[in-house]
Design a protein that fits this description.
It is a single chain. The protein contains 23 helices and no strands. By secondary structure, it is an all-alpha fold. It has two domains: about 80 residues, no CATH class; about 425 residues, MFS general substrate transporter like domains (Growth Hormone, Chain: A). The radius of gyration is 24 Å and the shape is globular. Pfam families: Sugar_tr (PF00083).
Length: about 550
């Protein structure tokens, strides 16, 4: 039940007028004319465009490397020497350094500016970076421009998952963020097909149209976001943490299609306020010291899990394939340039289609099962890639063939992408904001995202060098890493499916400091909010907003 103290603390009355358009709190508020399910769809679409941008940017440069005019414009990256391989890796991976910097900046700016303003900054910087890349004529110019684009993407990838999670119900949060993961792959697929289309300009391209237009096309996504960004709702949890409770009430009203003075809205706000007060008593506010200390809210435990799940995503080896699929098909599986590009585009498309299964499976099977079995499947795929690529090389050396083994290698490359798409693709972006404490959620997610980007950089940087030196044994390294990831998921990572963000607070608060693995058992034994209410019917509970169907 809602207490008088709660009503006083929020300083809101049922007859109050909201500050936006004079709509009283006994009515349902709207954003852009939407509320309930329609507004949830609008939020998901907005987030999706942000991750389309991420996927498009992530893949684009790797797919342009072997275009004739690109090689003519930047001849220093051409060739099979160690120097050329190192420079290629640097030009492609420097984007990740920019993303790393952008993610770190949101550690300090995320809670000061809010989610909407951080996304706005990210969009503007991406546009600047894209224009600079399009006008590049030297490797240095191109590299600096890619850093700019990366900084903007870092802002987006650190902020969008938090914003999406804080606006989602527990029952749909996983599906919503897995949908964003699917849209990363959609952006990747679009970039592959754009590259394939412009490849046909071939030697007739004297002005760099084949690579400059694909680069400038990435500005479409941030421009779309900028047209509506300030019309979208801010995170109600962030608003409450800043004392802007009236605005938070309006957002909850619109998201859940309930009047602002509905008891369910008041109880949800009270639960968030209680979490804030608990963290305030523990002196939790942003500082590096608070992040690396345990305390009653177990901040370092949560940060460690968030960072490692993002690191796991990168060291699975996914970007070995995502960035260099065309190069792998052409140089190491020995396919023609045309066949390599069309297979890379088909691989990107299949990657997207496979990711759609993750949207369905994430709530049905939970995070732990998908991440655990995903690591096992990825390890087996990498082992198979090692063997089939070895056979392709052997057959080619003996008789100039290797077609059958090359086909097998291609199949297992598709299999790896499919397994990853269902499991670690969206799971790594979903998990950090689900387990972070309220007042440190932006910082925890930003730091975990920065870990993702720095390991993304390392993988993309070393891949050309590794292939140059150890060839197909590169796959073996990632197979071993995936084998090690599986038990780490099983031992240390609790299930978050169906849990409210505030329930996860309670689970971590109950975990012993020196026995972090017990969080898994505590989560399994702790009743879920809806279950607890149904088992104790005499208690005067109000249904939690996360279990209310919006219309």
């Amino acid at each position: 039940m809602t207490s008088d103290k709660e009503t006083t603390s929020f300083k809101s009355k049922e007859s109050s007028q909201n500050e936006y358009d004079g709509t009283s709190l006994d009515q349902v508020y709207k954003f852009m004319g939407f509320h309930g399910k329609k507004l949830n769809i609008a939020v998901a679409c907005f987030s999706g465009v942000g991750f389309l941008l991420f996927g498009f940017d992530q893949l684009l440069m790797g797919s342009l490397l072997t275009l004739p005019n690109f090689e003519e414009t930047f001849p220093s990256i051409l060739g099979d020497t160690l120097h050329a391989a190192t420079l290629t890796g640097a030009v492609v991976s420097i984007y990740e350094i920019g993303c790393f910097v952008g993610a770190l900046l949101t550690v300090y700016l995320g809670d000061k500016l809010g989610r909407i303003k951080c996304m706005f900054i990210g969009c503007v910087i991406v546009i600047i970076g894209a224009v600079l890349q399009t006008t590049a004529y030297t490797v240095t110019h191109l590299a600096i421009a890619r850093v700019f684009t990366g900084i903007g993407t870092g802002f987006m990838t650190s902020t969008v998952p938090v914003w999406q999670a804080e606006l989602s119900k527990a029952s749909t949060r996983g599906k919503n963020i897995m949908m964003m993961g699917s849209l990363i792959t959609a952006g990747i697929a679009i970039a592959y097909w754009v590259d394939f289309g412009f490849y046909f300009l071939g030697d007739n391209d004297t002005k760099g149209i084949s690579w400059r237009i694909p680069i400038i096309l990435q500005t479409i996504f941030p421009i779309l976001l900028l047209t509506v960004i300030f019309k979208m709702p801010e995170s109600p949890r962030w608003l409450i943490s800043k004392g802007r409770t009236q605005e938070a009430r309006v957002v909850f009203s619109a998201i859940y299609n309930l009047p602002g003075n509905d008891p369910k809205v008041r109880d949800q706000m009270m639960e968030i306020q209680n979490a804030i007060e608990l963290e305030a008593k523990a002196n939790v506010g942003f500082s590096v010291r608070e992040l690396v200390q345990q305390g009653p809210t177990r901040n370092f435990h949560r940060l460690s899990l968030a960072c490692w799940i993002q690191i796991f995503q990168q060291i699975t080896g996914i970007n070995l394939i995502t960035y260099y699929a065309g190069t792998i098909f052409e140089r190491y599986i020995h396919l023609s340039p045309f066949n390599s590009r069309i297979l890379a585009a088909c691989n990107g498309t299949e990657y997207f289609l496979a990711s759609l299964f993750g949207i369905v499976f994430i709530e049905r099977f939970g995070r732990r099962k998908l991440l655990f079995w995903g690591a096992i499947g990825q390890a087996l795929s990498m082992m198979a890639l090692t063997i089939s690529t070895w056979q392709a090389d052997k057959q080619r050396a003996e008789n100039g063939g290797g077609t059958q083994a090359g086909i097998a290698a291609t199949v297992f490359l598709f299999v790896f992408n499919s397994v990853f798409a269902v499991s670690h693709l969206g799971g790594a972006w979903l998990y950090p904001p689900e387990i972070a404490s309220l007042l440190l959620r932006a910082q925890t997610n930003a730091l975990s995202t920065s870990c993702n980007w720095i390991f993304n950089f390392l993988v993309v940087m070393i891949t050309p060098i590794a292939f140059q030196n150890i060839s197909y044994y590169t796959y073996t390294i990632f197979a071993c890493i995936n084998i090690l990831i599986a038990p780490m998921i099983y031992i240390f990572y609790p299930e978050t499916s169906g849990r409210t963000l505030e329930e996860m607070d309670a689970i971590f608060n109950a975990t012993p400091v020196w026995r972090p693995w017990e969080v898994v058992k505590i989560e399994k034994n702790m009743p879920r909010r809806g279950q607890a209410q149904s088992e104790d019917v005499e208690k005067p509970y109000t249904d939690h907003l996360d279990y209310v169907e919006s219309t």
